[in-house]
Design goal:
heterodimer; A: 176 residues; Rna Polymerase Sigma Factor, Chain: A; Arc Repressor Mutant, subunit A; 9 helices; B: mainly alpha; Leucine-rich Repeat Variant; sigma factor (chain A); RNA_pol_sigma_r3/r4-like (chain A); sigma factor activity (chain A)
Chain lengths: 176, 280
């Protein structure tokens, strides 16, 4: 990234190749919408280019990337606040067709869909720590750097997020 | 263990559960948690539930991004590169990539390097004045533009001064603040307004605008001459004030002339006498 900052914009291609999947994964689990996530990946990389001078090289590139990505998620959430729609599981079922899920029993599939919906109903604050920890496999230390808080605060947040998720998920199971 | 102690111990154990799931507990925390779990069935059940949920979460699939995303990214990168001015470091990086890495060879390669650097220096010498001339051209363009702006303001002001509406004329006078060095047309127009405008407010504002340009000898002279032409007591007093402010000794003669005028307002008379005292 420091090379990009110094003017070698071609190096951005390398960064894209290395990180776009991870970034897409984060944005997908934050938005539950693959199309919007692709748009957001594009926006994050655009902002990296535009604001490359703000990358100091002190923290890691990954931390900086998540900083930008979180802002893009917030911006996009504000934009779609009124027309908020949760992406339906059926929408992406074709996209992941052939994946490990295809052969699994229907019930399991429904459970996962419900869990995903429960995740989508979490507050953004709780959702992001779970996504970072579970899907992005970031350590608490890294999450703390991204969120600019202490590791202890991250632990408490993950704990609360898990409790909230359990509550929502179990409720939806009972109401099935 | 009392109930309170137990609930505190449970609370602390549950806070450690996420760390247990991600295997991020320190050895001491882990030992403490294990010890607590061994004797607390509630927390054990909680751990099992959390573990199940945690595993299920991982099973939620993440779709792969579509192939169009890569295409869009590279298109964006190209557009960005095309619109961004090439930063100097790129030139440096290119230069470095042209120059083969310095080997441990003898004098030959070093001499070649020396000559190359000399060439680069001469090149930069040729290149720099070009940069400066571009700057000069840019500056000239800006100068031309600001001159044109000034002319436009003057034109607008002059035509507005002719407007029958007093409000418009007031606006015209206020424009003069934006005009830097006024040319003689503007000064003349302002003096004419000062002496002949039917509206006393317009005349007062004009006087204010002219007082700000009193460093111009034409303006000073016009102001002195205007003294005997003003009939409104308001204008006479305001002009007298300006004369004191400018310490304009040439105004003494017209001021005395005004005092001799018949039917002069008593207040104005006192003011004029005071002004004459202050100036002489």
């Amino acid at each position: 990234m420091l090379k990009v900052k110094a003017g070698d914009l071609n190096k951005m291609g390398l960064l894209f190749e290395r990180y776009h999947r991870e970034l897409f994964g984060f944005l997908y689990h934050m938005s539950s919408n693959p199309d919007a996530s692709e748009d957001m990946v594009q926006t994050v990389f655009y902002r990296m280019l535009k604001y490359r001078h703000t990358f100091t090289g002190e923290g890691s590139f990954r931390t900086w990337m998540y900083h930008l990505a979180r802002n893009v998620v917030i911006d996009s959430a504000q934009q779609h606040k009124r027309s908020a729609r949760h992406h339906d599981v059926a929408d992406y079922a074709e996209r992941i067709g052939g994946g490990p899920m295809a052969d699994e029993p229907l019930q399991k599939e429904q459970e996962l869909a419900m869990l995903e919906k429960a995740l989508a109903r979490l507050s953004a604050e709780h959702r992001e720590v779970l996504v970072m920890s579970r899907y992005q496999e970031l350590k608490y230390e890294e999450i703390a750097r991204i969120l600019s808080c202490t590791e202890g605060a991250v632990k408490v947040r993950v704990h609360r997020a898990m409790n909230e998720l359990k509550k929502i998920y179990l409720n939806s199971e009972y109401n099935r | 263990m009392s109930t309170t102690d137990k609930s505190i111990a449970c609370e602390s154990a549950r806070l450690s559960l996420p760390g247990w799931l991600t295997d991020e507990l320190s050895i001491t925390d882990r030992a403490a948690l294990d010890a607590h779990l061994a004797q607390c069935p509630d927390c054990r059940a909680e751990l099992v539930a959390s573990q199940q949920l945690w595993q299920q979460l991982k099973a939620v699939p993440t779709p792969a991004p579509g192939p169009a995303m890569r295409t869009r990214f590279y298109a964006m990168l190209d557009t960005f590169e095309a619109t961004e001015p090439v930063a100097p470091p790129t030139i440096w990086a290119r230069l470095r990539s042209w120059v083969p890495p310095m080997g441990s060879g003898g004098v030959g390669p070093r001499l070649a390097y020396g000559l190359l650097l000399l060439g680069v220096g001469v090149g930069i010498g040729y290149w720099l004045p070009n940069g400066r001339s571009a700057d000069i051209a840019y500056q000239q363009q800006i100068d031309t533009l600001s001159v044109q702006m000034q002319e436009m303001r003057e034109m607008m002001m002059l035509s507005l001064l002719e407007n029958p509406s007093a409000t418009e004329r007031l606006r015209a006078v206020s424009y003069t603040k934006d005009i830097g060095e006024a040319d003689s047309r503007v000064v003349e127009a302002l003096l004419t307004t000062l002496n002949n405008d039917p509206n006393v407010n317009v005349r007062l504002v004009t006087l204010e605008a002219l007082a700000e340009r009193a460093h111009d000898p034409r303006v000073r002279e016009g102001l002195v001459q205007s003294l005997t032409r003003q009939e409104s007591p308001l204008m006479q007093v305001a002009l007298a004030d300006v004369m004191v402010k400018l310490q304009e000794k040439r105004s003494l003669k017209p001021l005395r002339q005004m005092l001799r005028q018949e039917g002069i307002n008593d207040l104005v008379k006192t003011k004029l006498e005071k002004t004459i005292r202050e100036l002489s």
